[in-house]
Known about the structure:
- 2 copies of one chain form a homodimer.
- In chain A, the strands form 3 sheets. A 4-stranded antiparallel sheet of chain A has the order 1-8-3-6. A 4-stranded antiparallel sheet of chain A has the order 2-7-4-5.
- Helix content of chain A is 44%, strand content 19%.
- In chain A, β10 and β11 (217-220) form a beta hairpin.
- The first copy, chain A, starts with 8 loop residues before the first helix and ends in an 11-residue tail after the last helix.
- By secondary structure, the first copy, chain A, is of the alpha+beta class.
- Chains A and B meet through β5, α3, α4 and α5 of A and β5, α3, α4 and α5 of B.
- Chain A binds a DNA duplex through residues 151-152, 183-185, 193-197, 199-200, 202-203, 215.
Amino acid sequence: MPTTHFDSVLARKLNTFLTLTRQELTCLAEIQSAPVKMKRGQELVQEGQTGHKAFVLQAGWACSYKSLSDGGRQIISFPIAGDCVGLRSVLLRTADHSFLALTDAVVSTVERSHMMRCVTEFPRLGAALLWAASRDEAMVVEHLVSVGRRSAIERTAHFFMELAERLMLIGEATETEFKCPLSQFVLADALGLTAIHVNRVLRQLREQGLLTVRKGRVHIQDLAGLRSLSGFQGGYLNSRR
Amino acid sequence: MPTTHFDSVLARKLNTFLTLTRQELTCLAEIQSAPVKMKRGQELVQEGQTGHKAFVLQAGWACSYKSLSDGGRQIISFPIAGDCVGLRSVLLRTADHSFLALTDAVVSTVERSHMMRCVTEFPRLGAALLWAASRDEAMVVEHLVSVGRRSAIERTAHFFMELAERLMLIGEATETEFKCPLSQFVLADALGLTAIHVNRVLRQLREQGLLTVRKGRVHIQDLAGLRSLSGFQGGYLNSRR
DNA sequence: CGACGCTTTGACACAACTCAACAACCGTGG
DNA sequence: CCACGGTTGTTGAGTTGTGTCAAAGCGTCG
């Protein structure tokens, strides 16, 4: 039974791109299933799976990743509240990556057919979803740049800068602090490093007075320093036009 | 003056995803400008530029990349004939990466407004374009996995496997051989390595009887060996359903 | 013919990885 | 309440893959 509260996290996000009409909000509310609770460690989509749904993360932390034959994995992204997961997989019909809850989380599902209908009936919604997808792709591109061309410390700093900005946009971070339940192992799999090296890098960041990570919280201590170290340019995250 | 030949490279590509109607083919032909010749080394889009167009590469080789403040760059992708460039940038209104012709090339431009109209009038075309964009994103994701978690030699092998498959799909490669005008410097910027190290890696691949690169041509000598070395799974490139 | 771009090779340096050990933390069950 | 095992974080020592610097070989094109 679909929920009909207009103010879903997804609606709030798309609304920053263009102002949605009442009908569009209704449609958006209708295609999302009732919230489903996920336990930490639960997999929602597995690589290679077909016929699955898309998801909207309502609360909690998750990651999408690809596994390698040697047991390693590369984390592609960390969806946070309001982010869509698996839009691409739904289109390609078969999932090209896995999706895992990192904390207890809440998601809504979106049927392929519902989404298709919604997009054809409300082209502006289609445009908004496309914008969201474009933003996600821009993040993956920036991630690729980090891993390909930035040193471990630059890359780590850049990662936290981006995360801080994303969390600020949804009101989950202040200028100086935010919650971040990512272990060093998880960070390592995202940054293309070893957990041990992540630890050393975090120590460097701390010793240089830039940023501290403790007990699941990140404190930003020198924003300007982090920006210049990482070369972070947040333009790709905003909907300013 | 728009060309009206139905059989553009883009049409051929989208046709592998779903069979296009006569009207859709016409629309596709109409939104593309007459072919424009590009000289090797010419930039089509620069990072940060606004108000630009999207492109369809008709012939030749190009790359999209992001520059870093220290002068380095990360190449994101190598568009080949039939590929679209800058769909995302057009949506986000401001280009988030640059685009450069690596050989003399031919492109058509697509106006933002034309594309938008085309998508709203012909939803199936929208779906097809979305499919193409999804495929591109899947390639970027795979690229990220390579750079983040594969060794230099695995990554290089993977790159050539993917390239071979893409070129085969447009009839520009045989099972064992294809043209590839990419210098070792360019490869390095794509693979997150140094040109010097690319050279060493290519030597290893040659000495192990896997693959040789000479005079702008790649010869695949041990497909099975390359597959198992690189872990290449080409599923994300196909339109099979 | 010289100049330039690209490739190849060698010697060396260093960033990040591996292995190993231990400390801190946390939820669980006795 | 404490004891416990498992997960996560921390640190050191040694290794290795890749980067850096330097120089020479080769084609190609003007």
